[in-house]
Amino acid sequence: MHKIAFDVMGSDKGLIPAINAGLHFLQNHHDVEIFFVGNQKAIENHLATVPNCPKNYQIIDTPEVIGMDGGIMDIRRKPDSSLVKALELVKNKSVDGMLTGGSSAAFIAGAHFILGEFEGVGKPGFMPTWPTIVENHTVLFLDAGANTDNSAQDLYNFAKMATIYAQTVLHQERPRVSLLNIGEEKSKGKDVHREAYELLKADQKLNFQGNIEAREMISGSTDIIVTDGFSGNIALKAMEGALKNLMKVIKTTLTKSLIRKIPALFLKKAFKEVGTKFDYKNYAGAILLGVNGVVFKSHGSSDEQAFGSTLRMTYEAIQGDVLAKIKTKMEVES
Amino acid sequence: MHKIAFDVMGSDKGLIPAINAGLHFLQNHHDVEIFFVGNQKAIENHLATVPNCPKNYQIIDTPEVIGMDGGIMDIRRKPDSSLVKALELVKNKSVDGMLTGGSSAAFIAGAHFILGEFEGVGKPGFMPTWPTIVENHTVLFLDAGANTDNSAQDLYNFAKMATIYAQTVLHQERPRVSLLNIGEEKSKGKDVHREAYELLKADQKLNFQGNIEAREMISGSTDIIVTDGFSGNIALKAMEGALKNLMKVIKTTLTKSLIRKIPALFLKKAFKEVGTKFDYKNYAGAILLGVNGVVFKSHGSSDEQAFGSTLRMTYEAIQGDVLAKIKTKMEVES
C-alpha cells in the first residue's frame, strides 16, 4: 500500500477540487491510501456530499493554514499548518510522499527545514515535466525556480538526479541531458555555464548533448534540461505565457466573424487536442528533487484535473522508488 | 536625405534578399540613400538583373566578410570587412545609421570598439520590438543578449534609454516600464533585481510599474521590459520557440485528416493573420542602444521581408533623431 499525504488547504481554488481529485484517484488505485491534511470539519462536510465515497483515506486535522502568499517564516510561525503537518508525515515515514497546491516559498522552506537535503546535494531543484511537440514525449526541466542562483556543481547534480528520475519513472534508458544557454558553443554564457559544461561533459555516465537554446525547449530534441533557478523560472513562464496568449489570439481571430465561426466549429475537436497537449493542468506538478522525501508542488491555481495529474506523478515517483535510487547514487558519488 | 549603410554580407541567406529589401525600401522612401556595403561585383551583378532599379544608392566595395560564426577577434582581423566598413561609415558620419544581418558577437564588439559607448552608459543593450496580443501594441525589451551579465545601474540605464525611444519613435507619452523577475513582489530575484527595483522606483520621470513575470511578456500590460542580457535572451528565445512550435502542432493537428483539412482551408486567412502577427520577420530587428550610432542587427536568417522591417526601424530611429535625444539625457544625468 502506497501512502500519500495531500495538503488540501492553501491553494487558490479551495479544498473541494483537491479532495475530489484525491477521491477520484482512490477509485482507480486500490494500492493507495490518501491522508487528507487540513481542516477536518471542512473535509468531512465535503465528503458527506460525495456518493459512493471510497474508504481508503484518513483525515489529519490541522487548525492552521499557510496561504498562497505565505513565506519562509510561516514554517516556524505555523507549526500546526497543513503544509508543515504533511511534510512531517513524510519525515516520520507515516507516508511515502506528499503533495500540496500551497505557497511555493513556504513549501521549499518547509521541505528544507523539515526533511533536509541529501548528502552530496547542495541545493534541491524544482522539476516539472513538460510536453514537447513530439508525440508521447516529455522533457524534464530543472531548476524551475526553487533557487535564484545555482553553482556549476548544482547544475551537475541536477543532471545526475534527473537522469535517474527519467530512467526510473519515464523508462528512458539513456536520457539526453542539455544545458540551457544563450548559444550552442561551449564558450557561451557565464562562468557558471562554462564550468557546468565541463562537469557534464566529463561524466561519461551522463548522456550530455551540450548547450541548448531556449527556443528548443519543447522541440523534443532532448530529455532533460538543466539550468539555474532564475533563468529556469523565466524560461518556463515565458513559454507558458506565449502558449496561453497565442491560443487566446487564435480564438479571437477565428471567432471574429460568422464566416469563420462555422468552419472553426468543425475544428473544435482539433483545437481541443492542441489545447490539451499544452494545457498546464496536465503538467501542473513539480517534484522538489534533492530533499529527503518525495514531495510535489501542484500549481497554485490547480483544479481537480491539475491535482489529479500531480497525484499521478507523486504515485509514480513513489512506485518507482526513485528517491532511494537517487539518494544512493548521489551519496555514493559525493 | 537620410543615409543608411546596409551591410549586405554575412547573413544566412546571402546578399540577394538584403539588396532586394533595400531597393524596395528606396522605391517607397525618396528621402533615403542606401550605401550597400559588400562585394561590389556581386552587388552589381544582382542589380543588373533588377528592372527599373532605383538610383539613390551607392556601393562601398569591401573585400572581406565576417561570417555568421564570426567573433570579437574578427573586428581586428578583418578591418576591410563589410561589417567594419559599415560601422566606420557611421563613425565618420558619412551615414546616419547602419544595419547588418551578420554575426551578433562581431557586431556588438565592432560597435563597441569603433563607435564607443555614450558617456553615462555602462553597457549597451540589444533592444528588439515585440508584438503583444493587444491590437497595434508592441513592447520594447532589453537587454536581449548583448551582455551575459548586467548591474542594477545597467538595468536602470536601459529603462531610461528605452523610455526616450518609446516616446520618440513609438509616440508613447508615458511608456510603462517593468522589470523582468520571477515574481511580482519587490523582494523577489537576486540582489541585482532588488537594487534595480529601487533605482527604477526612485526616478519619478520613469513610469515604473514594478516587477513583471515572464508569462506577461506579450500580454500587452507594459511598454518596456528591462532585464539582464542572459535572462533576456533566454526569455525571448523561449517565447519564440513556443510560438513557432505551437503553430507547427496546430498545422499538423488540423491537417491530420481530410475532414479537418476542408474547414481548415476556410480559415487559411485567419491563420495567416495570427501567423503574421507573431512572425519574427516583422520584428527581426534590434537596435544596440547605448553606443554612439544608430546601429541595427537583423536576424541572421533574415529574408527580404525581415530586412525590410529592420530597414524601416533604422529609418524611424534616424528620422526621430532618437540617438541625440537619448545621448543628451544620459550625459546630462550621469
Automatic annotation (TrEMBL), chains A, B:
Which terms under GO biological process does the entry name?
fatty acid biosynthetic process; phospholipid biosynthetic process
| Function according to Swiss-Prot or TrEMBL | Catalyzes the reversible formation of acyl-phosphate (acyl-PO(4)) from acyl-[acyl-carrier-protein] (acyl-ACP). This enzyme utilizes acyl-ACP as fatty acyl donor, but not acyl-CoA.
Swiss-Prot/TrEMBL catalytic activity: a fatty acyl-[ACP] + phosphate = an acyl phosphate + holo-[ACP]
* One GO molecular-function entry: phosphate:acyl-[acyl carrier protein] acyltransferase activity
Quick check: keyword Transferase in the entry? yes
Q: Which gene encodes it?
A: plsX
| Name of the protein in question | Phosphate acyltransferase
Pathway entry: Lipid metabolism; phospholipid metabolism
What PANTHER family does the record point to? Answer: FATTY ACID/PHOSPHOLIPID SYNTHESIS PROTEIN PLSX, PHOSPHATE ACYLTRANSFERASE
**NCBIfam families reported for this sequence:** plsX
- Its source organism is Entomoplasma freundtii
Q: For this UniProt entry, what's an example GO CC term?
A: cytoplasm
| Keywords on record | Acyltransferase, Cytoplasm, Lipid biosynthesis, Lipid metabolism, Phospholipid biosynthesis, Phospholipid metabolism, Transferase
Q: Which InterPro entries match?
A: FA_synthesis, Phospholipid_synth_PlsX-like
Q: Kindly indicate whether the keyword Transferase belongs to this entry.
A: yes
Q: Which family does it belong to?
A: Belongs to the PlsX family.
